[in-house]
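thread: overnight batch results

M.L. [08:02]
morning all. the overnight job finished for the chain we discussed friday. pasting input first so we're all looking at the same thing
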Amino acid sequence: MFINLKLLSRTGQLEAWILRVFPKSGYFANDIANQLKHIEVALFCNLQLTKDGNGICLADIKLDKSTNIEVVFPKDFKTYNVNGQRVRGWFSVDFTSDVMVNNITLVQNVMSRPNAFDDLLPVTTVGDVVGIRPSVFWLNVQYDTFYTKHKLSVFGYLENAMKVLRIDLNPQPTNQKYSAILKDLSAIKQFASGILVPKGYIWPVDANKYLGNPTTLVAEAHKLGLEVYTYGFANDMPIFPLQHQTPLVSLLNAVIL
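M.L. [08:03]
and the structure it wrote out:
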């Protein structure tokens, strides 16, 4: 779940905190979030494909990070190449959707959060999330190459989901780095009210540590009605996205309910 922090009141902040006690992508978190009317909410599904080609929503491609699968099927771990990295764990490509939904339960994937609701809820399918009728549904596809290698088609699944679940897809180009995306501010304007950039994007510093000429980024953004925020000053807290990453990677590394 994502919350537009700009619209959060004190009550909204409390509700956002309360939602963190539930395992990610579970029914409790999704249902309560969907009932919040005074803040802007988008329900998030990090898409994983099962052995039989169905879509489930889990925080990480490694099932053992957010479910109890290593307890239920302790011997069924594998090692796969995932985006160029050798990753050991339990993966959805080795289990059918029926096995997942009927045998596996969700657990907290953030160890600092309470585990009071662990093992209470089954794995959530894409249909489960669509069924509670969220005003905005973010279906994130991060591992298309991995699933293709296992003869599973993300594109085919999305085509079928559009027909069966009656959802409209609006693909966003999140496989680009920030610097590339900022060249098309009009595309950003379609889904954002402002941008957050390092100070060097506005007033760059050369190799000799001298200030160069200011860029036209602020003027171009303001022309489109986008607010501009900057960071990278001495007293800034290190909580902002890494610009060498794609927005998708940095966003998934942040707090997602």
